Amino acid sequence: SAKFAIDLGVDLVFELPVYFSTQNAEIFAKASINILNKLKVEKIIFGSEDKIEILKNILEKIENNKDIYRENLKENLKKGYSYQKSSLIAMDFLNKIEKDALKKANNILGLEYLKAIKKINPEISAQTIKRVGVDHNSQDSTLEFASASLIRKKIFQNKSVKNFLPLETYESIKKQKLNNLENYYHIFKHQILLDSSLKDYMDYEIGMENLFLKNLDAKNFSEFINSCTNKRYSSSRIRRLILSKILDLKKEDIKNYLYLPYLRLLAGNSKGFEILKDLEYPIITNKKNLKDLSPEIKAIYEKEVFATNVYNTFSTGKLNEDYTRKIFIKK
C-alpha cells in the first residue's frame, strides 16, 4: 500500500505503529500528529463529513464547558451507556448540527486531530476534504464509491472491486493471499482460556472478561462480536480489546511510547527525500538503523515484527521479514 501511495503522487509514507493504529480515535490522532510534528509539517489535511469550522466550533465549546461536560459524562456512564454515547449526550451545550456531526466517524477522528494539534503544536494548521459518495463502514456503494469496509468484504467474498480502486492496486490485491478473521478468533479463544485477564489493556472495564468467557462458545468471530456488543460496549471497542489481547498491546506501553520520535519510512520519492535532509531525528528504514536507538524505540520495533509475524502466519507463512525489505523508492 505504501508503493501504491507513492505511485499515485504521494512523496513520503511513514508508519503509524501497531501500538497506536489499533487503538481509539484519541490515541490514533495523538500518535499521528506526534509523527507529523516530528517531521516538521506545517499543515495537515484529513477527510471529514462536515466543514472544519463546525469541528473547531465544537472543540471550542467543549473547552469552554469542561466542568459541565465531565460531570454529565460521569452521570451518563453510570447509567450504562457506551463512552461515545455518554460523551455525546453530555454535550448539551452543542446545537443539533454540531451533535449530528459527532455521530459521523471521520468527524470524530477529525476532532481528535484538532485536539492533538492544540496539545502538541498549535502552529500546525488543519484543513479538511469532504467525504463524498458513501459513509464510513457503509455496506452500500455507488458506481464510483464504496467504503473500505465494503471493499474488504467484497474481496473476501471474491467479488470484483475493480470500480473502486486504481487498476494497479486492484491487480496487486488479487494476487495476495488474504487472511480469514476466524484464524484470529481461534488465537483469541486460546489466549482467553489460558489467561482471561484484560485489565492491562486499553478499552477494558471491570467485568469484560466475564462477558468474553460467557460468549466464547460462539460459532464464529461475527457471532462472538454481536454477542458481546451491548449499549455500553460498542462492536469497535470489543474488536480493539480483542486485538490488544492477541498482540499484547499493554496500556502502560502505549502511554509510555506515545510521543516518542519513532519515524519509520516505508516509501518515498526524490522530492520526499529532499524534505528529510534537515530532520533532527533519525529515520528508520530497516534493522541496521536500530542499533543506536533507545530501548523504547526498539520495543516498538519488536512489536511491529511480532504483529507482522502473527499476520503472516495465516498468509505468506514467512516470519521475521519485517524491517528486512528495502523501502520503495520512486526515482
Question: What features would you describe in this structure?
Answer:
This protein is mostly helical and 331 residues long. The model has no long low-confidence stretch (mean pLDDT 90). Helix 4 (52-64) crosses helix 8. It has helices at 2-7, 18-21, 25-38, 52-64, 66-78, 83-90, 96-101, 105-120, 148-156, 167-175, 181-194, 208-214, 221-228, 235-247, 251-257, 270-275, 295-313; strands at 12-14, 43-48, 125-130, 265-269, 328-330. It has a 3-stranded mixed β-sheet with strand order 1-4-5. The chain has a two-stranded parallel ribbon with strand order 2-3. The protein is built from 17 helices and 5 strands. It is globular and about 55 Å long.
How does the SSE layout of this entry go?
Layout: H1 2-7, E1 12-14, H2 18-21, H3 25-38, E2 43-48, H4 52-64, H5 66-78, H6 83-90, H7 96-101, H8 105-120, E3 125-130, H9 148-156, H10 167-175, H11 181-194, H12 208-214, H13 221-228, H14 235-247, H15 251-257, E4 265-269, H16 270-275, H17 295-313, E5 328-330
Parallel strand pairs: 2-3, 4-5
Antiparallel strand pairs: 1-4
